[in-house]
Amino acid sequence: MDRAHFYATMNGEGTLDYERYLNTKALLSCQKEFTEFCNGDELQFQIVHQVEELWMKLIGYTLLDIDDYLQQENTNRVVTLFRRVHTALQLMVSQLALLETMSPREYQEIRLKLGNGSGQESPGYRTLLKMSAPLWQSFKTHYLDAHGLTIEKIYNTEYNHGDAYVVAEAMAEFDELFQRFRYCHVQLIQRTIGLHSKSLKGRPVDRLKEGGWATFFPELWEIRSQMTDTWGSQYGVVRDSLSAH
Length: 245
Ligand code: HEM
Hints:
It is built from twelve helices and no strands. By secondary structure, it is an all-alpha fold. The longest helix has 30 residues, at 42-71. The radius of gyration is 23 Å and the shape is globular. The N and C termini lie far apart (76 Å). The mean pLDDT is 94. Protoporphyrin IX containing FE binds next to helix 4, helix 6, helix 10 and helix 11.
């Protein structure tokens, strides 16, 4: 096939209504010129990062709406919008696999082009990290404190699968999927540059493993351990075998 011909047509003219509405001219110009790529993987490398930024923009925007609905105790809206957040996060996780089709050698070529850029500079990621505390506050004020509820009550002693519990589980799902992104990202790094290397800022890469276990809403995870200890205290630390009864 004639590469020059297809390079010329791939970005379109930008004049049709579809192109104008979606601003494809700008969108498809966000990557380097075809002739500037250092190898056949660099276009994919740029696109995956750009798409991830778009999903994080959508997630951040949706979390702002969720915060408003939490304050209104509009549970149906909260749950539906959390489903959107969960789905976008699942996409963020699954599309990391695209980068696993790139060989370690080809990534080294791309890495030489990155300056000292770091994923920590991602605007979407940095924004999302700041959103969990206000979300928790809205949930706590409107779903727990306003009704005399606690996490312990909604999960255990007054468990009735009510609104506060359903919203808490949607928040836990968000937290778990964000952790999964971090964990799969570490696996991608392991596969591409190895965990015993240093980042482009000179920091040890295996430091990122700790982030894979960091949680947004620790109380939602702690309750599970507490319940296991409380319920388990019926039998002490080690349980008798069923055959002993
Ligand atoms: C082959 C692909 C990739 C490699 C080798 C890689 C490598 C790295 C490394 C070494 C760091 C640590 C940077 C530092 O300490 O300053 C990092 C951080 C990060 N990367 Fe990637 N990355 C890749 C793909 C991606 C993709 C597709 C995203 C999508 C958003 C991403 C997002 C991030 C984020 C958000 C951080 C900061 C994480 C934190 O501090 O918890 N990375 N990456």
